[in-house]
Amino acid sequence: MHINNLVPHFTILIILLPIGSAMAAFACGYWLDKYYKEISLVSVFITLSMSVIMALYVLSNGRVTYVPGDWKNNGWEIEFILDFLNAPIIVLIPFLCLVVFVYSLKYVPHAIPDKGRSILYYPLLLINMGAMEGFVLAGDLFSMFMFLSAFSLSCYTLVVSGGDKKSVVAGVKYFYMGAIASVFFLHGIAFLYASFGTLNMRQLTVHFRNWDGNVIPAVGLVLLIIGFSIKGALFPLHTWLPDAHTYAPSSVSAILSGLVVEMGIFGIIRVIYSVYGFRNIAMNFSINNILLWLSAFAIITGAVGALLQDNIKTILAYSSISQMGYITMGIGLGSYYGMIGSLLHIINHAIMKAALFLCVGGIIWQTGTKKKKKLQGIGKKMPAIVSAFMIAGISIIGFPPTSGFMSKWYLCLGAMQAKKSFFAIIILIGSILSAIYYIKIFNLIYFRSMPKEVKLNFETLPKSMLYSVWVLAVLCVVLGLAVNIPLLWIKPAVVLMMN
Fold it and tell me: What is the distance of C-alpha 394 from the center of its chain?
């Protein structure tokens, strides 16, 4: 059978393979105490390989739909969609997970000393990866909800995997906020089903072409966006994020900030453009304007919050709040360049923030501290990991020629194109504030002397951890210089969404 004939089936295989492998990994880890790492790595690598094939297939063949078992049942049609919008994301998910898995081989025994928790860590990451793949491929709102619940539950457990009291409190807080988000989401899809008798996105799109502005679907839209905003930590619904990022193991923080939070933003994009249609929203609501102002507040609030922190992981957590604002600002602008910037920043932020959290995990490994003030002068003691941190930080700020610069460049072009130059100024102010708190860290690390009273135990960093962070650090530059590669998918996706 030709590989092209298999691609539609890959849409379900890249979901089932990680979840099935999670069960096998758990069984081997629990009963045999071996092979669970190998099973996990092989599963992630195969998933990544299939995802790359799928993304390349879209470039030459366009959109693919797959209905498992030819299940068509009056509004409950389960469908998976592979298109230009999600093609780069389905590659990004297993790629980042592969990097984190390699990083975790040596990091997890150090960060999660409890043997039972460390065995459970790998199956949970596999479930998380498979569920995120299912979420972005889902062509109906019911499937989106099921996969959203699956990767959220695995994340709650991963946050508390460290076992200390603070991580448990953070995980419980995250759980309750996630439960609230699920309530909003469920009520939102209930309003849509009551209005149109279907949850299939393709069918909903047909209904909305002749939408008369009826209030029930409007309420459904608001509820869905609120639910996704909680998951995406969009201001002011971000309160769970700082603690979850701060007290989770750094490898979990990399997945949480780089991928999980962005799933909420992806959900907003899919619902607005693939279900309701931006023209419907622009004509009947002020959702785009509300998103714009909330994004502006997120950018500034997150950056100011980061400036006030001393815990280096908390700084990165508040930085994530700010970065989510950049992504949603592009959605709110609704312009061609704004949407390009938004989709590009989903990819770039995932790489940049995962690199930063993994670097911080290495720094904590070697120094035993999260406090910024205690990291004075470590640049000379651990140049490799600190240099990677600096590259990723420069990219977050948006200095050329890094990937962060390209995202913000397109967002500024989008603001000018939409004739809303004020928001281009917000982007600039946010970048300046980001520069201030990252430069303060760089100054402490490189240009301050280590206090005599501070005694740090500089352990040797495992090569698997070092290679992982440098792969991502190099990508922060490569994706800036070779921005046309992700744009191969992003530009057609935006064209289709805007029509």
Answer: 19
Going by C-alpha positions, the residue among 473, 463, 474, 383 that lies closest to residue 107 is 463
Give the pairing of strands 64-66 and 80-82: antiparallel
This prediction's pTM: 0.90
pLDDT digits over 138-168, tens only?
888 888 888 888 888 888 888 887 767 777 8
Domain ranges, residue 303:
295-499
458 vs 76: CA distance, rounded Å: 57
- What CA–CA distance (Å, rounded) separates 262 from 266? 6
Distance CA 389, CA 379 (A): 10
Handedness of CA 91, 93, 95, 96 (dihedral sign): positive
**Is 414 a member of any domain?**
yes
Question: Which tens digits make up the pLDDT trace of 284-336?
Answer: 556 777 888 888 998 998 888 888 888 888 888 888 888 888 998 888 888 88
The number of folded domains in the chain is: 1
Decide if 317 is inside a domain.
yes
3-state helix, strand, coil in the chain (%, to 5): 80, 0, 15
What would the two tokens of residue 449 be? 């002397």
